[in-house]
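[#protein-structures] MJ: dropping L-rhamnose mutarotase here for a structure pass
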Amino acid sequence: MVQRYGMLIRLRPEKREEYLRLHAAVWPGVERMLREANIRNFSIFLHDDLLFGYYEYVGEDHDADQARIAADPETQRWWALTDPCQESLSAREGGSWWTPMAEVWHLAAESVVDGQAT
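AK: finished. structure tokens for L-rhamnose mutarotase:
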């Protein structure tokens, strides 16, 4: 089963170019760790000074996989570069840097049964 996550954070205007430069070439080890932790289809979108992140989780224990990511030394080095570019929008509930968003609606893929879309 796929779980979808959306989140927001503010991009510090003076760090915009640095953040974009970093994300133009995300480290392979960071990407590998995300995949190993059952993260799929991770995207970050930018509007003015807001970053919207979206990913799909395909594992069975999101909290444990998030802890694995947080414990990874290469990811920690990556965050040491990217975190100063960001400003949290909320008090860090449960230690969360990005502000979680509630899913309001989702258009599911069509399924095909006996040649008919349902």
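MJ: nice. DSSP finds four helices and seven strands in the chain.
AK: one more thing. The two ends are 19 Å apart (CA to CA).
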